[in-house]
């Protein structure tokens, strides 16, 4: 609640619920909105009233400002509290005189009971205050605007900077700043002037701004490149992570914040020792778009309206606007995830208008149409004839389920008691009278509350005195009551689904026999399925209940098939009597058929449908139409009064939006089911006329027109253009193009020479043809002779050079009328169009080559000719590439530390002049090439600063406009080195010798072998390969092979062999080893 800062009284009754009332002072000239009727003055007085009847003893009252500030501690000049008690009314009043704006709350506590009331006081001066931490931005009007005016804004921080410290608390209290400590901390940082720093060469910016979800980099520069820094966020140290990345690049220190969120909106510091560098980061939320647009509503007075939109981000803010003076208390704003709703509890005629919803990235609107209520009687009350002790039921149906009403008998209200009961279920209202008595007969009326409408019916009591029996015989007699449901002498109308009970009084002695028949069928108690239709006396939907003096014909839940002629026949020995009745069943009509759209406009559509196949047995009164946007579930009524025709023009639609429509049929019984929904249709409008229509060219039989697109195209788009012409003085227009022209230009052909012709152009789209664009003056069709002239571009007047492989596209404009003949020649011969492409138009000629080759070089000549007149232009095209290497490069002389080189020009210059040479040298030891001359113009040079005794190589590259040659010319070609083939088969140069050793003493056998590749050695004993036995040690030292046998025994004697194998062959040597025992040796 917004309260101007002036003399205002707010009364708050605290229990059981809290409310606000504002009696204001008089004499104010400014018009106020909302709850105010006149502008108040001076201080604000808030009164809280509470009755002691609902509490035990004196309650505890606490006044709070913001969330936590207890105003009792601030009592003084600006805050005064007063308590009064009225003994008669037992009401306590607590008064607070406040001199500041902000959010207030009053809390009342009494033992186990608690209640509170919240309200807000906002100054309504010429300079309203904005929220502290959110600078004002350009936004749409605030929700339920017309309550708060727009004014210039005060910057509270600038006010605090210039104020004396003793006034800080007063300013904070006046402008609603509840966090005084946080305000002082921030103000201290803002007022602190930057001091010359020895630690920082460059500080961070004072503040940074970043969009939510993006990254931001905070950068500062320190004096010492090796110093360590700390990064703080709101005074807390930041640790390096995937979210916070800290970098050190020389003297620069960086803090990168990845994927910023609203939690990153804080103060950041870079700390070097005791020196700090401070900045603030402001995180901006991305634009919130509207994903589901607002629907239109068409309701009656008193109905609930719920405008709903859906935004792209959950929890985002949406603003609602009405742009009219209204009471905001009747509106409710609700948020549910991404859905935002504006609810009007009970719509009135004053709520008609456009409603807008804004986000910071989108806007939508919906229209509300409110009609006055009109109550339709769907089923009237029927007259009843009831006998004594039976039950009478009066029943009616109206169109509104919420309507209540009263029942009257002969003008006196019927009150519920044991016999009279009133029910209201949906649209049906019933009066039930049990145990009918003679005094119940009379006129009964039902009057709906709030409507000048009444429904009446008559109750007839059937309770005559019993006939005195006479011994004579009397013929039977049928006593039909022609009142009640009978619309004519013998016709009874029954609404489908209702119950029909026809009580017929019968007289006659003896008691007559009663037979009911339907058409040709007889209804008797002895009916069986193989015979006629018969209903038993106690069950069945259609039944007959016969008594001595009364016969009742009953149909439960009447159906269309029950409509027929019925005959009652009574017989006794004294005679017979008959009566015929026609029972007519009426029902709601069938739905209308074939609902479709005939045509559309910019904001309208013409709809047509066919009447229902069955009118329900009652004449049709008319139709009700509804429409909705495609994809929406909300149907909007188009009419509240019954519409009689079968065509309807729906208006006030949005162009470019698909709609669907359905129709209801209405008769005296009620409303039908909805028709099948029409096919979706879109309101569209033709475009505006084309603009800037002009004549571009005229010949003996053609006229070239050009124009611009229409200024307004609309949602229907633009399909093309239609061009028409007619002779001057005539009215018959001829269509020039058989198919739509999609371009903004057209050549009209076949025009009569010398005639004056008028032209016009239409734009066409799905909605139809636009108004025409016409020429102000007619055009005379005749040839304008113009000599041929070639306008050669400036860059083609000199030699045109391109590289091999380039694309060549030469556009040569020319002029001449009539259309000239264009020819191309290369070196005096016509160009081969298989090699070179040529395209000609009326104003230029294009010569193009997809991939240039050196063969394309030459002089190209363009000839433009009109009869015996012509113009020529020559283009010198040269296609160039890299040159070949220089030839005959040689060292002509060597002296001291110098060497002289000479060479000849390359055989292939690349089709352009050689511009120079590049000479390089390399030491044969390192083979690293160094450039000693670049762009050398002469075919010789001298290389200096050579090292005596080293061997050098030289190479030379030739250069032209394209670049250096791909291959160099070499001055020294070393002979190729051929390795000597030293491969040979294995050969033993020293064989194995027979040995004789004493058992127990280690021995060795040796031989030598040569061969390349190095042979593989295999030792064998008695032709068995020696494996991994540790007793045998096999050695190979530069081809000398040794087999050591450790402590041989007599079993180790035998023939040993050594085999050498490589890719070329193998060799084998053998020896005999004899082992002597120690005993033999001692002998």
UniProtKB/TrEMBL annotation:
Keywords: Immunoglobulin domain, Repeat. Residues 194-289, 373-445, 476-582, 788-876, 986-1074 form the Ig-like domain. InterPro entries: FN3_dom (IPR003961), FN3_sf (IPR036116), Ig-like_dom (IPR007110), Ig-like_dom_sf (IPR036179), Ig-like_fold (IPR013783), Ig_I-set (IPR013098), Ig_sub (IPR003599), Ig_sub2 (IPR003598). One of its GO terms (molecular function) is actin binding. SMART domains: FN3, IG, IGc2. One of its GO terms (cellular component) is M band. Residues 591-687, 689-784, 885-976 form the Fibronectin type-III domain. It comes from the Eukaryota. GO terms for biological process: cell adhesion; sarcomere organization. PANTHER family: MYOSIN-BINDING PROTEIN C, FAST-TYPE, TITIN. This is Myosin binding protein C, fast type b. It comes from Gadus morhua (Atlantic cod). The lineage of its organism: Eukaryota, Metazoa, Chordata, Craniata, Vertebrata.
């Amino acid at each position: 609640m917004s309260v101007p800062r002036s003399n205002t009284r707010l009364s708050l009754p605290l229990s059981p619920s809290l409310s606000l009332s504002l009696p204001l002072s008089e004499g104010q000239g400014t018009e106020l909105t909302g709850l105010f009727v006149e502008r108040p003055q001076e201080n604000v007085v808030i009164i809280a009233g509470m009755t002691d009847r609902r509490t035990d003893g004196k309650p505890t009252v606490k006044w709070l400002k913001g969330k936590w500030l207890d105003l009792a501690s601030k009592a003084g000049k600006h805050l005064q509290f007063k308590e009064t008690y009225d003994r008669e009314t037992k009401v306590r009043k607590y008064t607070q005189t406040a001199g500041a704006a902000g959010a207030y709350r009053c809390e009342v506590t009494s033992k186990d009971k608690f209640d509170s009331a919240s309200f807000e006081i906002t100054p309504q001066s010429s300079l309203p205050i904005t929220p502290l931490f959110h600078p004002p931005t350009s936004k749409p009007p605030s929700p339920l605007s017309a309550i708060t005016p727009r004014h210039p804004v005060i910057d509270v921080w600038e006010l605090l900077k210039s104020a004396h410290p003793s006034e800080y608390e007063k300013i904070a209290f006046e402008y609603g700043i509840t966090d005084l400590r946080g305000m002082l901390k921030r103000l201290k940082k803002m007022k602190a002037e930057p001091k010359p720093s020895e630690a920082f060469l460059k500080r961070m910016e004072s503040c940074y701004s970043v969009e939510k979800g993006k990254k931001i980099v905070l950068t500062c520069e320190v004096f010492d490149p090796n110093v360590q820094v700390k990064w703080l966020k709101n005074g807390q140290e930041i640790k390096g992570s995937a979210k916070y990345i800290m970098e050190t690049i020389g003297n620069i220190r960086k803090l990168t914040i990845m994927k910023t969120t609203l939690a990153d909106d804080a103060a950041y510091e870079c700390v070097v020792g005791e020196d700090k560098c401070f900045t603030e980061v402001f995180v901006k939320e991305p634009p919130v778009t509207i994903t589901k647009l607002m629907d239109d509503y068409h309701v009656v007075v008193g109905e609930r309206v719920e405008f709903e939109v859906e935004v792209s981000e959950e929890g985002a803010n949406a603003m609602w606007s009405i742009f009219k003076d209204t009471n905001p208390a009747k509106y409710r704003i609700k948020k549910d995830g991404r859905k935002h709703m504006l609810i009007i509890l009970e719509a009135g005629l004053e709520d008609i208008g456009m409603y807008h919803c804004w986000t910071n990235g989108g806007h939508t609107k919906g229209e509300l149409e409110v009609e006055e209520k009109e109550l339709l009687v769907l089923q009237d009350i029927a007259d009843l004839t009831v006998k004594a002790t039976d039950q009478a039921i009066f029943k009616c149906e109206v169109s509104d389920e919420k309507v209540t009403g009263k029942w009257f008998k002969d003008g006196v209200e019927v009150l519920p008691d044991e016999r009279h009961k009133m029910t209201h279920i949906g649209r049906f209202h019933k009066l039930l009278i049990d145990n009918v008595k003679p005094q119940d007969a009379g006129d009964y009326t039902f009057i709906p509350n709030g409507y000048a409408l009444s429904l009446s019916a008559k109750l007839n009591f059937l309770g005559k005195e019993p006939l005195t029996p006479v011994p004579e015989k009397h013929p039977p007699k049928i006593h039909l009551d022609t009142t009640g449901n009978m619309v004519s002498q013998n016709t009874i109308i029954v609404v489908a689904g209702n119950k029909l009970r026809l009580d017929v009084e019968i007289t006659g002695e003896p008691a007559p026999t009663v037979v009911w028949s339907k058409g040709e069928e007889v209804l008797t108690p002895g009916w069986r399925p193989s015979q006629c239709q018969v209903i038993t006396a106690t069950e069945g939907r259609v039944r007959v209940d016969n008594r001595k003096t009364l016969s009742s014909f009953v149909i439960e839940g009447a159906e269309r098939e029950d409509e027929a002629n019925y005959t009652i026949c009574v017989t006794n020995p004294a005679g017979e009597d008959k009566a015929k009745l026609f029972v007519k069943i009426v029902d709601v009509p069938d739905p209308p058929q074939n609902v479709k759209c005939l045509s559309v406009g910019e904001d309208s559509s013409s709809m047509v449908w066919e009447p229902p196949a069955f009118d329900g047995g009652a004449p049709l009164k008319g139709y009700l139409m509804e429409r909705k946007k495609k994809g929406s579930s909300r149907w909007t009524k188009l009419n509240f009064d019954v519409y009689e025709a079968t065509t309807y023009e729906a208006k006030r639609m949005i162009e470019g939006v698909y709609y669907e429509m359905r129709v209801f049929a209405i008769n005296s019984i009620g409303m039908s089911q909805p028709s099948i929904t029409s096919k979706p249709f879109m309101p569209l409008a033709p475009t505006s006329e084309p603009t800037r229509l002009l004549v571009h060219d005229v010949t003996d039989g053609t006229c070239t027109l050009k124009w611009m697109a229409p200024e307004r195209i609309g949602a229907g788009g633009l399909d093309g253009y239609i061009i028409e012409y007619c002779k001057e003085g005539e009215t018959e227009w001829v269509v020039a193009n058989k198919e739509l022209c999609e371009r903004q230009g057209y050549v009209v052909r076949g025009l009569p020479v010398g005639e004056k012709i008028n032209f016009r152009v239409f734009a066409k789209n799905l909605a139809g043809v636009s108004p025409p664009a016409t020429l102000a003056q007619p055009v005379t069709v005749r040839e304008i002779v113009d000599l041929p002239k070639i306008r050669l571009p400036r860059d083609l007047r000199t030699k045109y050079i391109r590289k091999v492989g380039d694309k060549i596209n030469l556009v040569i404009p020319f002029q001449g009328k009539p259309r000239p003949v264009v020819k191309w020649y290369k070196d005096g011969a016509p160009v081969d169009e298989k090699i070179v492409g040529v395209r000609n138009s009326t104003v230029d000629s294009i010569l193009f080559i997809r991939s240039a080759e050196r063969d394309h070089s030459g002089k190209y000549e363009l000839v433009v000719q009109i009869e015996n007149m012509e113009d020529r232009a020559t283009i010198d095209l040269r296609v160039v590439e890299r040159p070949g290497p220089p030839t005959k490069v040689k060292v002509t002389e060597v002296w001291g530390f110098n060497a002289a080189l000479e060479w000849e020009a390359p055989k292939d210059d690349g089709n352009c002049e050689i511009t120079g040479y590049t000479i390089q040298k390399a030491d044969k030891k390192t083979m690293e090439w160094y450039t000693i001359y670049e762009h050398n113009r002469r075919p010789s040079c001298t290389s200096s600063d050579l090292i005596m005794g080293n061997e050098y190589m030289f190479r030379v590259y030739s250069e032209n406009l394209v670049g250096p040659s791909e291959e160099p010319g070499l001055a020294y070609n070393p002979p190729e080195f051929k390795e000597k083939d030293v491969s040979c088969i294995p050969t033993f140069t020293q064989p194995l010798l027979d040995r004789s050793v004493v058992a127990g003493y280690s021995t060795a056998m040796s031989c030598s072998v040569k061969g390349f590749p190095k042979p593989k050695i295999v030792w064998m004993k008695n032709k068995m390969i020696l494996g991994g036995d540790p007793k045998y040690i096999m050695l190979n030292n530069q081809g000398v092979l040794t087999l050591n046998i450790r402590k041989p025994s007599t079993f180790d004697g035998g023939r040993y062999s050594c085999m050498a194998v490589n890719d070329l062959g193998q060799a084998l040597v053998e020896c005999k080893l004899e082992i002597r025992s120690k005993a033999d040796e001692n002998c």
